[in-house]
Amino acid sequence: MASDPLFIVVALAVLGVAAILLFGIGSFGRGGEFNRRNANRIMRWRIYAQAGAVALILLFVFLRRAGG
């Protein structure tokens, strides 16, 4: 399964979501002007990335159950 290209894409998408989340938490914890200007934008990026990751996971599961 680890050599499956779609699995690798799914794993990278999940890691991307985690990176965005950690970046957002870090900027929130630091506070300051950067956080005031960009907190909502960073969390929006996380939501978009998370939606993409969930869609890829669903596609992966669908294709594996269909025998593809």
From TrEMBL:
Coiled coil: none annotated. NCBIfam families: twin_helix. Keywords: Membrane, Transmembrane, Transmembrane helix. InterPro entries: Hypoxia_induced_domain (IPR007667). It comes from Oceaniovalibus guishaninsula JLT2003. Residues 1-68 form the HIG1 domain. This is HIG1 domain-containing protein. The chain crosses the membrane at residues 6-25, 45-63.
